[in-house]
Amino acid sequence: MLLLFLFFWQSTKAEHVYGLPDIKHNKKGTLTIDADAITFTGKSGNASIPRSAVTAVSAGNQRMELFGMTGMFLRMTIPDGGGLAAAAVMHHRVDMLTVEFSDGHGANHAAVFFLPAKEADRALQNFSVTSASPRKVSEAVCQNTSIEPKSVLVSAPNWDHAEVPAAYRALVYEHVIDRLQSTKEVGHVYRDGDGQGGCPQYTVHISIATFKEGSSVKRAALGPAGMFVGTTQMKFDVTYTDTSGKLNTNEQIKATMRGESESTNIADHVAKSLAKHYATALKNADKSSSAKSIDNRAS
Asked: Confidence class of residue 90 from pLDDT cuts 50, 70 and 90?
């Protein structure tokens, strides 16, 4: 979708959750939308997304603890269902604004922001939607180019098998990219749509299998038993392949999370697990390749 900016909008109580390359996560500041860009300004600097680079904008919300973990454990001690009444006043709504965009190389990015209640809906009023051409497929990056050793392409995840809020989708992809970039067995990490001209040696394919969004209010109402229900759950089918066809590993990655900022925490949990499994898959592939080479020389 192509989005056009219509008016000026600003929130002075925004928080950058994740996704802007030049801004650290969980930093508070001002988010501004005008005719030229979406700009986040914090104490340590600012970052802008040109309006021409924005491909989608979504709004959502989640409940947050007013008193953190202390408040959650306090409600668990209230008898006779009193935790439910307490939950009604000890939680507040926080909006999430998700902005999807492309960088100068065509690579896909997404940034997520926390905003005061109902502010994300107001921000969306500054956009109108028109049809646009579909994105270029990422596989085109390998045409007539040499393979870059240890590099990996993280394809855009397939979300068709479950209804997943935009913020969760964005955070999973961004955390997977960052976790792989910090893995020592990994070279350059390509995003979907990246047109820098390199050819990744490996590709990570991610597909959602199941998703269940948790409820902190529901957990609060059930006292101590609430620690085991109302959790956010995600399950992914993941495949690792390489250009030679020797690596083709499939596995399922699961994550369950409770507590504040579940969307962020579960995304990083999935990403950390995926990066660990990916490193193991590469090591196993190298061992298998080495063993075959020894057998060939022996014969």
From this structure: very low
